[in-house]
Amino acid sequence: MEHATYPVPGSTRILTREAFDQVLDSLDNVTDFFFGSKEPIRANVQNKNVTVMNRFLDESELRQIVYVLGDQASGLYDSIMSESHPRDRSYTTKSTKIRYRVVIVRTADKHQGKLRIVMRRLEGQPWALERLRLPDGFMDVVMNDSPGLILIAGATGSGKTSLLSGALRAIVSAPEKNAHLVTIEDPVEFIYDDVACSQSVVSPIEIGDGCSTFEEGLRASLRMHPTHILVGEIRDAETAATCIAAARSGHKVFATLHTSSIPEVFSRWADFFPETGKRRAITDLAAVIDYALFQTLEHNDTGFGPVQESINFTQFSRNELVGELQKDINDIFNTVYLIVKNLSLIHI
Length: 348
What we know:
By secondary structure, the chain is α/β, with parallel strands linked by helices. It has eleven helices and 14 strands. It has an eight-stranded mixed beta sheet with strand order 9-8-10-11-7-12-13-14, with helices on both faces. A six-stranded antiparallel beta sheet has the order 3-2-1-6-5-4, with helices on one face. α8 crosses α9 and α8 runs antiparallel to α11. The N and C termini lie far apart (52 Å).
């Protein structure tokens, strides 16, 4: 019988940073690594899970991996085992300088101290526009200097941040822009140092390092004299309201939002706020939003590809939009759907 071979020998003990990096550098085309106690190490390669090391990790190895991810002095392992909420981190390998977004969570088998670590490989360099499928008119809105809000919507893993990286790359690489881009992310996914021209400044802020929350980072960014601001994700009313304030005070704001369609952008936004604040929240959003783009990834002849819907809100009257949205604040989803349908502004 032919024996299967694995990228990492079973004799390897994951007790040092060097051994851990050896695992992470063992495969190309990886999207995610999966680590768990009493399990083999697995990875997702081109949408298929493969075994990296066909030996179960023991608890001492998993504890050491957490120490590497958080440094032993931080007490990360002990705090995870005593508190139930997940931990988000970033990690960069020493040899290849590849960056990862890390989630560490205690799983249901808490009495045996079982942990799950998932590490998503980040590309590092922002995408060039040629790699992206962009709707007509999108880059016109991105590159003009008028303040406003550009929202990219979709599920986790749908390519929202990659799409935005291409747009922001075009801004900071344009000699005429003299841009100061502040990014607030959890974690920072793309580094713009190698693409920004000498006239542009990029200031990345990472949640958990430079600030505690998106709202805190966003407020700090407003004191940094930015021209452009990226908010990695809008998760709450405070962040949503601060995005509006930033756009109203003369900044171009880019943000992502977890929704499943363009109409849901407005209903999701309203859901952040209490009943007494929904009407004002929708009116404020309508006053500053310039563009909304929803993206998902679906199977096609070549593998996966983006499917998009988008609306360019600069094409019609703000007063008309606000008036339509205020007609039925309790059914905002269908109101936006009818606006989209009647004005024929959606592009697929």
